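Now for my pick.
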Amino acid sequence: MDLPLLNLPSSNQLISSLNECKKVEDKFRLLDALLSQLVYTNVIEAVKYLDKLRKINSFDLESKINFKYYWFKALIENQKYQYKKAYDSFAKAAKLSEEWSDLHVKAELFIDQAGTCVNLNKMDEAEGLIEGAKKMVRKNPSTVLNARIISREAFIQLHYANYPRAIDAFLKAEKIIKNLPNAEITHKDLFFLQIIQAGLGNLYEIIGDASKSISAYQNAIDLAEISEIKTRLSWLCLFVGKGYLGLSNVEKATVFFEKVLHIEDDDNALSRASAYANLGYLQFLQADFSVALSLFDKAEELFIEMGEKNSENLVSIEIWRGQIAWKNQDLKKAEFYLLHAYRMASKSSNYSRLSFICKELASYYAASSAFKLAYTYEKLHADFTATYVAELNQHKIWELEAKYDFERRKQEAELLILQANRLQLKALRAQMNPHFLYNALNSIQNYITSNDMTHAAKYLAKFAKLMRQSLEYSDVEVISLEKEIAFLENYLFINEKLRFADKMSYKIKVDDDIEEDLIGVPAMIVQPYLENAIEHGLRSKKEGFLNVYFHLFSEQCILCIIEDNGIGREKAMALQKENFKYQHHKSKGTLITEQRLRLLHKSLGSQPAVKIIDLKDEVTGIAKGTRVEVLIPIMDLDR
């Protein structure tokens, strides 16, 4: 298959530069570039240079070094099939990534971490990581990261047996990577191309298309050999060999199984053991029993070294040994091996294998005239077959349920957002307090009647802009934080100048690390809380003050803190009971906004939080205001 060209320094060039390097910052940069290659091309060398990265002594770079160390460590462990270790290392890298603001770096980490979660069958975690990566990429687009996200989603769809979607996703991701400019191609991109082909090979194997499966795996092998990315090469050759074995092409199957044994860059004991076992089976088919038994012994030794004392592979070896003994007329050995296979298979409850073994034992005992035992095992064969068929049906049901559950979760999220949209319309109808509108317009009218046209024009323009913003944002669910703050500025300015005649002041502050124009939030989500603070806290104050602060709480949420120096909730409630006009002011906006937040947080898989704190003097206990903390979900902006 066609392969994009790499325009990167070779590992030898990077090593040469590293050996001549004196500055700590340059060493870190070169080790970063070198390890980005070696984790895919030479795991043994990667381990060596990972240790060099760990030993860089720099206070200024300490957090970056630790972050990169655990990330590369996780990638190496993943390449060595040590998925649980990789999972733990990724967790440490993810924790350290919180100090980084680069969305591309975080998204790339999430994508890599999702791959290990897929390998460990932690699909919910994988989906969550991919969703997080997608949000970051939407805020800061990247073609290559989008392709990697799609390829991970393909493996998730493959897990849920949604084969058409998986194929579409694999092919889409492949096309994007192949169309990247050569200057942008990295070793990781070639690795993703390889796993995409391997995923397609697995998919075609599952649906029973052996020819397409072999072709896809062969593409992955070609990629590995051309690009020197051989960390998965032994498995790929093993799968191709099994494909040819399924097609009864003994010659080609033998070629690929033997190839597994001579691969140096992928020292995987399990694939080598499997290759020995399959080569033994091929020799068994060709009636070369002595060679077959010798290969089975080598395979068994490796399987046992890896701790697979009762694995399915060892069960197969015992069955084949039993069949060889039977063909050699050594009936006692045949019985021994078949019974041993039966005991091992019983421990793993592999009903398909148990059914086959019982059929073999029934045939053996019938040939030995032990008819009672033959009947017993024939009956067991029938029982295990029935159980296996029921198990297959249950698995099909599970696949359908998994598909349904996956689609249901997506639909639920969409439905929750739709409900939030409807609540938004209700909120907008209750958004502006009629007293606010009346007072603002009345103040503008006073400027006009007193012939103060300068102030009248200025405040009328501000009021018109606020109304225009309110109507404009009623058509959208998500706006940028920048627009939300501009709306709040207008709202508070009109309150300060028109309604309270400079007896109220305010301040809006935003964290420096918040990119207001890139972050999306639910439209007009804060205004009802400001209105509440004004109506209940500041309305009866001579010098009211309102402080609004936006803080980046996490990658998913912004914390908005609204603090006033008002009369406090207790006195406000007392006034409501005593004063008729206060009794009729009930903020529907905050109630509906809290419902919106609850639905939006639920659709994003997090918990809503609106916290109200009474501020009191530490000595006297007298109320000195109210603090409201609103956790606002960060949402994707439509661009």
Observations:
- DSSP finds 26 helices and seven strands in the chain.
- The radius of gyration is 34 Å.
- The domain at 430-633 is CATH 3.30.565.10 (Heat Shock Protein 90).
- The longest strand covers residues 623-633.
